Amino acid sequence: MVRTETRAAYREAILDAATRVFGRLGFQDAKMADIAAEAGVAAGTVYNYFKNKEEVFRSILQRTHELVYQRILVHQQLEDPLERMRASTREAFDFLEEHGALFLLYVSIGGGFDWAQKRIEQALMNENHARYLALSHATLRDAAARGQIRNDLTVEQLAVFLSGLTDATIFSWVRAGCPPGLRTQADPLIDFFLNGARAP
Question: Signal peptide: which range, if any (predicted)?
């Protein structure tokens, strides 16, 4: 048990170090030796946990997705689905603002993986997207059942519209260099989704 916990602690420390290295040097220029030096371990130790830097980055990505998902999951206990929607969006934006450098790095290395690696990355992204989409569908379905949102569109259509607004807001923020204030866009986004562009 102690050995298992120690191994897990080493792995987390390596991922923390790699996050700093990738943020400082960029994915392409970072080397496994840089990660080892940052973590304060021998290069061979890093290879005991990860076979290459692509696997390190994929592990960081998966860990990040899990952290975001768990933070959003907390808000699924809210009774009002509209407040659930707001709180989840605020939480996601808050997390992105805290970890903007890592997100910007992920976007910037889109062409940095070979074909086989891209297939692995895409499978991971699809899996995580499906988890978030399931939460969104459940919230929208609940809101529709309560008569809080229109029911002439399917839950799937509404989820696409909400996702489109969210993605556009995030990528606009990234193009601007990840300035402070993304979290303040959550409520206006949800208001626009619920009310459209019609003047009050």
Answer: none
130 token code pair: 């499906």
Q: Cα(133)–Cα(139) distance, rounded to whole angstroms?
A: 10
CA–CA separation, 179 vs 104, rounded Å?
12
Instruction: Give the CB-side neighbour count of residue 87, counting CA atoms within 13 A.
Output: 17
Sign of the CA dihedral with 85 first, then 152, 156, and 191 last: negative
DSSP state of 181: T
Residue 130 CB contacts under 8 Å (≥ 6 apart), including other chains: none
Cα dihedral value 122, 125, 127, 131, nearest 10:
-160
The closest of 80, 79, 18 to 43, measured between CA atoms, is: 18
* Residue 147: C-alpha distances to residues 66, 156, 161, 199 (Å): 32, 17, 18, 22
Kindly report the length of the chain: 200
